[in-house]
């Protein structure tokens, strides 16, 4: 028996147990699902090794380009993608591995990729782009040349 249903048969089991998730966890999954639904492009990154000041600079640069950058919880992200019927086929293809940050673009799909690659080039950042998803299709890193 599933304790909490998120959407159309999606059952939430937080932490691998059958405990009833807190409302805050359910809200976090729903909020993340909404971001995936509204975005025109999603780019996943590995931010491992980035100092706090560089992460702050990254967020500022992306915000100026109209891109939202979030550090995500892997389990919440997978549940959010599963709840999004449009993104469900991309669940197995989008790269969410290790310390993952996600750039959500809501306008022109090329802007987030340009902003991220420009930041990496100009700061010689350790940030790496893992992959992207746009219109239900996954794109590996080599196709993100901007």
Automatic annotation (TrEMBL):
GO CC terms of this entry: ribosome
Gene3D superfamilies reported in the protein's UniProt record: 3.30.70.1730
Keywords: Ribonucleoprotein, Ribosomal protein
InterPro entries noted in UniProt: Ribosomal_uL10, Ribosomal_uL10-like_sf
Domain of life: Eukaryota
Pfam families: Ribosomal_L10
Similarity remark: Belongs to the universal ribosomal protein uL10 family.
Protein name according to UniProt: 50S ribosomal protein L10
Species for this entry: Geodia barretti
Organism taxonomic ancestry: Eukaryota, Metazoa, Porifera, Demospongiae, Heteroscleromorpha
């Amino acid at each position: 028996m599933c304790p909490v249903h998120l959407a159309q048969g999606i059952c939430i089991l937080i932490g691998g147990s059958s405990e009833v998730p807190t409302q805050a966890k359910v809200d976090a999954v729903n909020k993340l699902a909404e971001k995936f639904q509204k975005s025109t492009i999603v780019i996943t990154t590995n931010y491992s090794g980035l100092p706090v000041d560089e992460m702050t600079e990254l967020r500022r640069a992306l915000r100026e380009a109209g891109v939202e950058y979030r550090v995500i919880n892997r389990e919440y992200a997978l549940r959010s993608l599963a709840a999004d019927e449009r993104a469900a086929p991309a669940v197995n293809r989008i790269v969410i591995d290790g310390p993952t940050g996600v750039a959500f673009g809501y306008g022109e799909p090329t802007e987030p990729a340009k902003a991220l690659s420009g930041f990496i080039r100009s700061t010689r950042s350790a940030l790496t782009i893992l992959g992207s998803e746009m219109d239900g299709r996954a794109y590996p890193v080599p196709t993100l040349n901007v």
